[in-house]
Write a structure and sequence with these properties.
With 298 residues, this protein is mainly α. It is built from eleven helices and two strands, in the order ββααααααααααα. Helix 2 packs parallel to helix 3, helix 2 crosses helix 4 and helix 5 runs antiparallel to helix 6.
Amino acid sequence: MKIPKPSTTSSTRGSISLPSWKEASIGAMERGIQSRKSERTTASCATCPSSISPKPPSADQEAGAFHHARWMAKAIYVLKIRMFRSHVQMTTREGKGLEEIALFVVLLYSRAWMEAGLATEAAYNDLNLVKDLHHFQEINGAIGKTTLTTFSRHLWYLGADLVGLSLFSERISMEEKKKIAEETRKEKDLDRIRFNKAADQLINSSLPSLTSSASVRALTLLNIDISFLSLPVDEWEANPAYQKGVSTVKNLSVTNDGAERGVAMISSYNDSLTKDEKTKQDLLQVVEAHRRNYPHPH
């Protein structure tokens, strides 16, 4: 099977075999900020050849907590059912559907999920995901088109004012960072089309083309000294202002995990132990503190 090559913000394309996608998923796992249980489980499933090949694994691990706000929980079960399909009675239609979803999760979604919390890579990853979803239509037109349409409603980090966070990326070349820095000196009317830019218009775009003078706005709001922009790119890493900027951006939360956990927690504890509002609030604070102190209970 030939699979479209993972995008790297360039417009070039090619075909490679499945092992390269496995390496990309492992790399995404290693770059993840937090090692949540669901991420570890997803990584082990997504990088296991049996997710798409006949031989099932010899061992299994119980999946993490399930909540409807977390689609990845469902994806984990899809991968596990796919791996143990010889032990499950399914119709041909069900088996084909599982294979299609598993392929999508292994090749694309697992990598995007595991790196979703990286603020420095948000714009880079989002642009590459748009391109990968476009290419995925060659494998599965229905899934590729649907996911691309859905993701096109979530392109915030490709907006001119937030794409500047990519200046602190570890994956963008110095040459591209130089171009981004140059574009920050130019006035462009990009905000007008920020939320109207169709995803298919981004296929041939690059981060510099999405950058404007507005791209330093988020940096100044974060109290980041942008004086490093006047220096040669190869001197940035040794510059204290740039180093502080890297630290600041890396500690930003760019996902809605907190909101999802809050919804899950209130759903679990609302009216379950008490109907008194004050006692309920105290209970929620205790549960939240416990989860913060013991993020990975065994």
